[in-house]
Amino acid sequence: MIRLEQVSKVFNEGTVNETRAIHNVNLNVKEGDFITVIGSNGAGKSTLFNLIAGTYAPTEGKIFVNDADITRTPEYKRAKYIGRIFQNPLLGTAGNMSLEDNMTISHKKGFKGLGISLNSRLRERFRKELEVLDMGLESRLKNNVNLLSGGQRQALTLLMMVLSRPALILLDEHTAALDPRNAAKVLELTKRFIEEYRLTAIMITHNMANAIAYGNRLLMMDAGEIILDIEGREKQDMTVEKLVDKFHAIRKKEFENDEVLLS
Ligand SMILES: Nc1ncnc2c1ncn2[C@@H]1O[C@H](COP(=O)(O)OP(=O)(O)OP(=O)(O)O)[C@@H](O)[C@H]1O
């Protein structure tokens, strides 16, 4: 459904600060894929997301959605079908607005422009949707979102995004800023929503064990390249040790991401 062909991204081209963040990447994301992405520091993981989301245009190459060339489609247009969650829980929701107002906005997005006003039926629906999170948020519809904890806020962001039914979701270390208990909870909700709503998802994680445990496909990036793309049996049989060994075998160097190896 999303395809990258020979995509490269160079920042500050022709200056002393020139950085080749993505180099000749080919990637075909199939409908229903849940892809985890792991990689050393500066490997190009976030840049890959920025290219898919349209935050940056590639220096070279093309990006397609269902065979339509979207290489030059601006980010705000792609946002109609690509959902994205960042590491920072403050970014996905409006803190100075209530839960119900936040949810109304994302609900409207799901209905692609239909005028929708907040009424008791919609409130009841929001309550039911929030119950699924099992965080007690169903009784806090009128609370401002900035009263929520980081974990609650990230779970709400996830729920709102899922309910707008994006064709593709990009999760950029979305549990990395949470304490371990909340991180595990949000990760489990993520898995559950992806399965229940049959979403196509790409998730960057610094945790190799999670990259192996979640999803049907795993990418490893290094120095702007996808150096490993595994799925099926090969992914199921993968272990952290085997993954580190694979990295050494391919790159003939140490894996430079302390967080990955320590987590
Ligand atoms: N806007 C930008 N301007 C200049 N250089 C950039 C920009 N964004 C990323 N880079 C550079 O591109 C390379 C890849 O960065 P990117 O953030 O994609 O890596 P990453 O794999 O997400 O790293 P990390 O795990 O450390 O977050 C790095 O060398 C980075 O400094």
In a nutshell, what does this entry contain?
This protein is α/β, with parallel strands linked by helices. It is 37% helix and 23% strand. It folds into 2 domains: 26-56 and 71-81 and 166-263, P-loop containing nucleotide triphosphate hydrolases (Rossmann fold); 99-163, no CATH class.
What does this structure look like?
By secondary structure, this protein is of the alpha/beta class. It has helices at residues 45-53, 75-78, 99-110, 120-131, 150-163, 180-196, 208-213, 232-236, 240-251, 258-262; strands at residues 2-11, 19-29, 34-39, 60-65, 68-69, 82-85, 168-172, 201-204, 217-222, 225-231. It has two domains: 26-56 and 71-81 and 166-263, Rossmann fold (3-Layer(aba) Sandwich); 99-163, no CATH class. It has ten helices and ten strands. Residues 11-12, 19, 21, 39, 41-47 line the site of adenosine-5'-triphosphate.
Topology (SSEs and partners):
Blueprint: E1 2-11, E2 19-29, E3 34-39, H1 45-53, E4 60-65, E5 68-69, H2 75-78, E6 82-85, H3 99-110, H4 120-131, H5 150-163, E7 168-172, H6 180-196, E8 201-204, H7 208-213, E9 217-222, E10 225-231, H8 232-236, H9 240-251, H10 258-262
Parallel strand pairs: 3-8, 3-9, 6-7, 7-8
Antiparallel strand pairs: 1-2, 1-4, 4-5, 9-10
Helix pairs in contact: 3-5, 5-6
The chain binds adenosine-5'-triphosphate.
